Amino acid sequence: MTDRYAVIGNPVAHSRSPEIHGQFAAQTGQRISYERLLAPLDGFWASVEHFRAQGGCGLNVTVPFKLQAFEYAQRRSERAQAAGALNTLVFGDEQVYGDNTDGVGMVRDITGRLQVPLDGSSILIAGAGGAARGVLLPLLQAGARCVVVANRTESKALELAQIADDSRVIGCGFEALTANRAAGDEFDVVINATSTGLSDAAPPLPDDCYRAARLAYDMVYGARPTRFMQRAIELGCSNVSDGLGMLVEQAAESFRIWRGVMPETEPVYLRLRESLALA
Ligand code: ATR
Asked: I want to staple 220 with a disulfide (CB 3.0 to 4.6 A). Which of 52, 161, 197, 200 is the partner?
């Protein structure tokens, strides 16, 4: 019997998850199938029910359904609870379990593949939407000394800091960043969690935010460095990365949750990077 999995989203045609999970399955000898599931924008619930009725074992969830998936799950991990959204569903005999592997995927990419320690670090996150919220708890659990969440709409950054309920998290607007650093605060890691990349722009961070950064990390990925990465390089940050490694690591964590075996991520990452460059 082949166990069935899928990624559900709208749109979903661009998703790399089927090839990633296909490679994980081949590597670990797991007999699974993994497909793309395009759900109508108003039809997430019905599509999931249909997939389950056909014997589906689990789903990855992508835009715009991560919040609805959160509602759908009957039991959730702590990190999913903190994120308020989830990207992994597991269909048990009795209950639907939900997890969010995005944050741990990013932390593993940064500390493992990129070899940048987060323990004791000062982190700046640009953006306070779902992407930022999804990574906050795993960054704190990785030992961050301080996480500043800066956002165009300051109130959303303040709200996120309040939700995090941890004295290490500070919310502010972009303008306040210069004043903060005048007090001697430097950022070891700068993360772009805004959606500015979609419009080929960079978040309006003050230039000196990158001054001491050991890494500028964009959560989105592409064939070329994003505007945010380009800006960081221009301002003297020698270590920049997009979020392709995060994509592979979050998938590996979902695979582990479903199959109980952790696949090797590096060969899958390298192959994806190569195919992106050729695209
Ligand atoms: P996601 O789930 O990708 O986080 P989202 O919840 O819509 O998407 O959040 C988008 C984030 O990008 C927000 O922090 C948004 O800032 P606002 O809260 O002020 O809207 C940020 N963002 C989008 N376009 C931006 C821009 N041009 N400049 C700065 N920030 C931007």
From this structure: 197
